[in-house]
């Protein structure tokens, strides 16, 4: 009973923090609308968000897990909305259409597979493995900035609030996966939490602004 109560609390925290993380896309889209262009930005984060949330949604439906279904239904809805906004304001419409077409084709294939697979355990394992892989790609993507941080010895390019939020999201889902004994949730989120801690530790090592931009202080008495 006690473990079930903890599981419910952890699940609720995971859902709330994940939704808040999804909502951060509103700020990005608001900037696109304000500028009337997406400039050189890539639609990939939104397309990948649709894909990842969609696969996790299928996983949640197959597992009959209400928490996973709810959070990823919201995720798919928001990511599709962000993609539409991106498409409206981008000059790379053909590229966006190609990525959308690929995503739709993949979902058609997945829906077809889900409808014909009779072994629920096999289906759950394959969906879980695919969802786990997509999550790992997503959480590892920001690590590409680490070399630049070490080069300039400055964390100006790292978004502290988003990294902190990513840590909480990963930590809560890791705990939930641990209690639920679900390795497909536990593995990617344990790695996500560790990567977030590594990035957060850089803020304690390097300044948030380059040394050259700091006010000059004369050493002459």
TrEMBL record:
The chain crosses the membrane at residues 12-29, 41-62, 68-89, 96-115, 127-148, 160-179, 185-206. It is a multi-pass membrane protein. It is found in: Cell membrane; Golgi apparatus membrane. The keyword Transmembrane applies. Keywords: Cell membrane, Golgi apparatus, Membrane, Repeat, Sugar transport, Transmembrane, Transmembrane helix, Transport. It comes from the Eukaryota. GO terms for cellular component: Golgi membrane; plasma membrane. Pfam families: MtN3_slv. GO terms for molecular function: sugar transmembrane transporter activity. Mediates sugar transport across membranes. Belongs to the SWEET sugar transporter family. This is Sugar transporter SWEET. It comes from Parnassius mnemosyne. The lineage of its organism: Eukaryota, Metazoa, Ecdysozoa, Arthropoda, Hexapoda.
